[in-house]
Design a protein that fits this description.
By secondary structure, this protein is mainly beta. Helices cover 5% and strands 38% of the residues. It has a single domain (20-452), classed as 7 Propeller (Methylamine Dehydrogenase, Chain H). It has a six-stranded mixed beta sheet, with no helix packed on it.
Length: 454
């Protein structure tokens, strides 16, 4: 009985640890930017130190978002590399301040000096896009196809698209979904088996779908539907299984429904929560707006092919980064503007027909902010800032809009801010996991910054 109890305890602890991980961009495939991790409290953040507990050495700037799974942090950089670091800052780490070398690295291709795809780590495999038009899959443990000292890894398999893959992959039910600059959404077998062959192994898609513009926003997957924004100012919903509205060989799919926005859906990945799809749109010379659509494609939807209109909208001063949804509130950062908090249900501060919403509160993040998206954990909102052309910081706010908030309309200031670590705005989106908050930066300051609270 004692042995059985230990087994149950071990399983429970494993589940608890897994629940504190952040396995892909925006935490999960629904892209909510929320984690149930309660290891960091608002009070611990408010009294935390301004300097990172450790930094991870990279070759290039880290603009993408880290992933954290089973004690390892994975992150890509603009030098077309993927890195795996010890999440605790112990193995391969030394010095004061502490600096860490990677457990292993892998090289992706590309001639463009930007690589924005964030890794997804599921079932022991790391998936990441690249500026050489490819999706890569690596062994997350750094064992298969890995060798040398320092250790480098070759891919388990790759897949070629028709354009740059700045989109971050989503992995659900054995399928990897990713967008490309060739205006398409792709679905691949996550195991690298179906439609895969050769040595080195190359995979062809299970199905594709064509949109009207580049797909740099990352797809969101929830309830058997894939949602994706595109550069032509549309949100499209597809059957995740590649069955409904799909045909041909090779298989292609058309949307279950689409929705038009007033501006490009360029980097604002949709977030899906409680049956609603939230997405930002805008850019230079266009209306900057946050949209809320019925995820099922029923409310405010009509015609054939089906077109949906928003449940509510909200105006933002600048183009929106990917929204986060937690506790009935939508948090959205902006390029060069404030962080906004809106009632996710479209009630408080909302009126008119069509319905428009005013923010519950706003918070300045610096005029040079460049699209870091908000992350929410245990009542704290984290976001990168651009305080000037040459200084960026990680900021933390009270998610409830209470601490350090005042005025009408309500404005909030940070409950915590990092030291001036950056030589430029922090573009990477922060990741709270297991008492740490990880965020990317420039290589001269470590490339990856890890702040510990408590």
């Amino acid at each position: 009985m004692r042995r059985r109890g230990l087994v149950v305890l071990a399983a429970t602890l494993a589940l608890a640890l897994a629940g504190c991980d952040w396995p892909m961009f925006r935490s999960g495939a629904a892209r909510t930017g929320f984690t149930p991790d309660r290891s960091i409290s608002l009070s611990a953040v408010s009294t935390g130190g301004a300097d990172p507990a450790w930094t991870g050495r990279t070759t290039g700037v880290v603009e993408s978002s880290p992933a954290v799974v089973h004690g390892v942090v994975y992150v890509g950089d603009n030098a077309h590399k993927l890195y795996a670091f010890d999440a605790s800052g112990t193995t391969n780490c030394s010095g004061s301040p502490k600096s860490c070398a990677p457990l292993w690295t892998a090289t992706r291709g590309g001639s463009v000096g930007v690589d924005l795809s964030s890794p997804a780590v599921v079932n022991g495999v790391v998936y990441i896009g690249s500026a050489d038009d490819k999706l890569y899959a690596f062994d997350a443990s750094g064992a298969t196809n890995c060798s040398g000292s320092p250790k480098t890894c070759a891919p388990l398999w790759t897949a070629t698209t028709g354009g740059l893959v700045f989109s971050s992959p989503a992995v659900v039910n054995g399928i990897v979904y990713v967008g490309s600059d060739d205006d398409k959404l792709y679905a691949f077998d996550a195991s690298g088996t179906t439609n895969c062959s050769g040595s080195p192994k190359v995979c062809r898609p299970l199905w594709t779908a064509t949109t009207g513009g580049v797909v740099r926003a990352s797809p969101a997957v929830a309830g058997g539907i894939v949602y994706v924004g595109s550069g032509d100012g549309k949100v499209s919903a597809f059957d995740a299984a590649g069955a409904t509205n799909c045909s041909g060989s090779p298989k292609t799919c058309v949307p279950l429904w689409t929705a038009a926005t007033a501006g490009e859906v360029f980097f604002s990945s949709p977030a899906v929560a409680s049956g609603v799809v939230y997405v930002g749109a805008g850019g230079l010379g266009s209306s900057n707006t946050l949209y809320a659509f019925d995820a099922a494609g029923k409310k405010q939807c009509s015609d054939s092919p089906k077109v949906c209109h928003p449940l509510w909208t909200a105006t933002t001063a600048h183009a929106a980064s990917p929204p986060a949804v937690a506790g009935g509130v939508v948090y959205v950062g902006t390029f060069g503007g404030p962080l906004y908090a809106f009632d996710a249900a479209g009630r408080t501060g909302c009126s008119g027909a069509p319905k428009r919403c005013a923010p519950l509160w706003t918070a300045p993040t610096g005029a040079f902010s460049e699209g870091s998206s908000a992350a929410v954990a245990n009542g704290v909102v984290y976001i990168g800032s651009g305080e000037s052309c040459c200084v960026g910081q990680l900021l933390a706010f009270d998610a409830a809009g209470t601490a350090n908030c005042s005025g009408t309309p309500k404005t909030c200031t940070p409950v915590w801010r990092s030291g001036s670590q950056s030589f430029g705005p922090i573009t990477s989106s922060p990741v709270p996991a297991n008492r740490f908050v990880y965020v990317g930066d420039v290589p001269g300051l470590g490339g990856l910054l890890a702040f510990r609270f408590g």
